[in-house]
């Protein structure tokens, strides 16, 4: 088992890089070139990872005394680098991928957002209005649903399973609110293009604008829930500090990460009809690994708890939010910055994919 993990910690990050490199080249990389690129990634990633480890005090590899925690962290850092490295290598090795090309796509994205953002906001308002138009309690459902979920989980985990986290109702409400935004947005992204068939078959519109509209709806509901959280903090007399300002960056990173994942999922949702079912199952599993109603770092045995919290982006953001709101402490700023960078990479991959394939979506649906 340890031998396999020792090998995996070195080779897995390079595989991640090779997959993304081939993705950027639309699967056109020949097999011989793949082998050469894999060797390059294997060398570069492990060189950087080992250098960072050396600076932090690890002077060599002693596999007999090496802890499981170090192996997992080494592989996790390598995979993060493996996510970033292909963009740099592609700029150097691929003639059709240039800085000018990235800038053109970035400019096109900026112009399209500026042009179509009013529609996204209007569509979000229309969806919100239609959602409560025929209900007796109207907009109150946006409060009732998360409050009921909070009460259920508080009863089950707070009293039945004896959870000991401070301010547990607020603790669990933060997790439900943030996870709800992420899961609803990602699951909804799969069918976004198909559901928007009536629009995209008649007029041109960047397809991710439809996703943004749905995210604005979910984001509005999330903001209402955070308003309830602030009221609960006053009722429970939760002490606050200047670290409360980290709430804003945390929400921004969550939005960016969700948009990045959503753009990729909405592309594959056009071609894979069963992806919605698969996404639902995966999200259900991830919910229990994200710490929605418990602390991942405290409840999962070391070293897996801390590693899972750091390398699960939504778990990291939920933990950061709880630190800022409940515990008056600053989040892991460097880790939040890394996930912000990865979010931009995901957005770049997703938007690049949509622009490249959007003409074929109408034919498929």
Kindly describe this structure:
The chain has 365 residues and is mainly alpha-helical. The protein has two domains: 2-97, no CATH class; 104-364, no CATH class. Helix content is 78%, strand content 0%. The protein is built from 15 helices and no strands. 32% of the residues are buried.
- What is the makeup of the main sheet? none
**What oligomeric arrangement do these chains adopt?**
single chain
Instruction: Kindly state the number of beta strands.
Output: 0
What is the average per-residue confidence, as pLDDT, rounded to a whole number? 84
Spell out the helices and strands N to C.
HHHHHHHHHHHHHHH
Strand content: under 5%
Name the overall outline: globular
Total of helices: 15
The total domain count is 2
pLDDT < 50 runs, ≥5 residues? none
* End-to-end CA span: 46 Å
- Helix fraction, binned, reads over 70%
Radius of gyration: 22 Å
**Helix- and strand-based class?**
mainly alpha
InterPro entries: ABC2_TM, ABC2_TM_bact-type, ABC_2_transport
Membrane topology: Multi-pass membrane protein
Subcellular location: Cell inner membrane; Cell membrane
Keywords: Cell inner membrane, Cell membrane, Membrane, Transmembrane, Transmembrane helix, Transport
Please provide a brief summary of the model:
With 365 residues, the chain is mostly helical. It has 15 helices and no strands.
